[in-house]
Structures
1.
Amino acid sequence: MDATFPMAEKDALNLSALSLAYVGDAVHSLYIRTKLVTEHDGKPQLLHGMASSCVKASAQAELGERLLEEFTDTERSVYMRGRNGSAKHRAKNQTPADYRKATGLEAVLGYLYLTGQTERLKKFLETQL
């Protein structure tokens, strides 16, 4: 696969849902951390706690459920692939259902990032804050 960025949609869709979620998790975390640092003059420990409350599985699951109606058919398909994927890991203190929904959201965020759909990505990320 060509490492060109942004990727063609067909190339991004050929990635596994868990690979998309891997990227989406990083994108979500970086966005939240950047937003907090620019809007709050807090100590790192306080900022970490604020960020953790946004990127934990239950918060991501809730966001994914709210956004589901706004997803395009392709985004919905990516979400379902991520949600139904077979991740071997489960976050502590999170329900399996929330973890699967969070993985679905992360897959969509990863897909949007990798395909250069930054305005759509930003719209979804700003919905949480």
2.
Amino acid sequence: MANMTLLTDLYQLTMVGGYFLLGKTKEKANFDYFFRKIPEEGGFCVAAGLEQLIDYIQNIHFDPEDIDYLKSLELFPPEVLDYFRELRFTGDLYAVPEGTLVFPQEPIVRVTAPLPEAQLIETALLNILNFQTLIATKAARICIAAGDDPVVEFGVRRAHGPDGGLSAARASFIGGARATSNLMAGRTFGIPVRGTLAHSWVESFSSELESFQAYGKIYPKNCLLLVDTYDTLRSGIPNALEVGKELRKRKQGDLAGIRLDSGDLTFLSREARKMLDEAGFERARILGSSDLDEWLIESIKKQGAEIDIWGVGTRLVTSYSCPALGGVYKLSAIFEDGYMRPKLKVSDDPEKTTNPGIKKVVRFYDERKFMRGDVIVLQEETFPEEGPVKAFHPLLSHISKTYPSHFKREEILIPIIKAGKLVYRRPSLPEIQGHTLQNLKYLRPEHKRLQNPHIYHVSLGEKLFQQKQELLKASV
């Protein structure tokens, strides 16, 4: 991976330099990465981007050219530039594995490190995790709407730059997409690639039939034809059927399917299915595309469309209806007077008041393995082996809930980097996708609704709740 240490905001380095000059390079701090709201008022998010975050952290260093650039800013004293030259990440990083379902206010990543090091990684961490989590979540929603139908990511041409296209393809696969049109993503991440032809191929021939015949001769094993260049029902599908019959006659291949990229997808797909079946091409599949998202797919399927595969581009890779995840990275503890002192940010907006201390997240599962809620607790906090667990609303002190003793418990934050060294086995991308699908299987249906999903409860443990209340009172 290329050195991305300068993928940061200037104020991060002014703070890091200031910490050095003030003698704070050994002072440990704890930061939490979390988000406050689920995009599009959805029921869940899918954590993604950890692999790239690991690569970034392990490659932190300032090249000589970086130091020359920083020197040219005439902002940093020579001794600060010398400190930058030797700076590496030596701390601890805990995170939820990619593909884990996550919810508002709970730590997704926890960083405990010398203050300058923990501060340095903020911008890149947010850049990597916010985008990939956003797109993986969007992909999961689209795949839920598509049901058992495969979803193919088609969005690189509309993505936010080359890296946006690459990262979006990876995150889409984590969210459940089966393949991508992006060859660089295919090569880089091992994602299956799909694609055949565009309207320009059809228009470059003297007739639509000639264009289909030429494609069928060159690629007889991958003959999925785009049929809406001129007239879908009167020329596109009949010409595709003609080519399919020719392939069968020559015993070279078969008509794999057709793609509909415009018009009334419900009506056209139903008519197309009849025409294909009547001509003996029952196995030919219909791929639908054209500015699709989860809402359109859900609607089209409810209308009885006969679409087998969904090609989703712009609205997936840009998360068109919600272009950003509001993830934040907040200080929650710092070493003072011989121990890690909890800290919190107080705001007039209760949702922006943070949870103090070094924390872990415990997930509860019922007897059917369904996820029933998460409880944020202090790192040293434990629950009794027997008996129920009481948890408190993070904002409203008069609301609490109790988890039965028979519910299974799981800590979802796990060690990734310890003392600067990787201690985590990196899973393959198919393994990560499998983890997403398993998580979604254990999320109750009411949390997966596109409209008015049931709220998944994230609560505070008793000690954390009391500590937060005490710090709030002391801040007045």
3.
Amino acid sequence: MSFVRKVTLDGPNRTILGALMADARTSLRTLADKVGLSAPAVRERIRQMEEAGVIQGYAADVSWAALGYGLQAIVRIEPLPGKLREVERTLQDMPQIVQCDGVTGDDCFIARVVLRDVADLDVVLDPLHVLARTSTAVIKKATIPLRAPPYPDS
């Protein structure tokens, strides 16, 4: 059994997390300058946060529009009785769905879909109509892009 050390989210760690969320490719030197520590000290803090599961990975921020997907939509999905697992398998097989969460309430799933145009919405929704009720909202803009929540007091 491995034991994970708790990491204190002090000011420097919060600054490091914020900078890495904004740009995961930020150099250690830049991070060190931001927090007033040496690059090796910043590397150690990052390693500790990785080991504690605070930092779970690093990702590229991809522009769907640059890839030809001019629209995004949120689709709320309420499976018909007895169709939950079939809906889940169907959603997993749809490459247009770039993110999907299982949620509480009447809807069991909320999916983020990328589309080349409005007609592409039929490609996503048609297979679901025999399995679930759906409600779709086209995304106009990211009012609040992905950001860190308030950090708990350490």
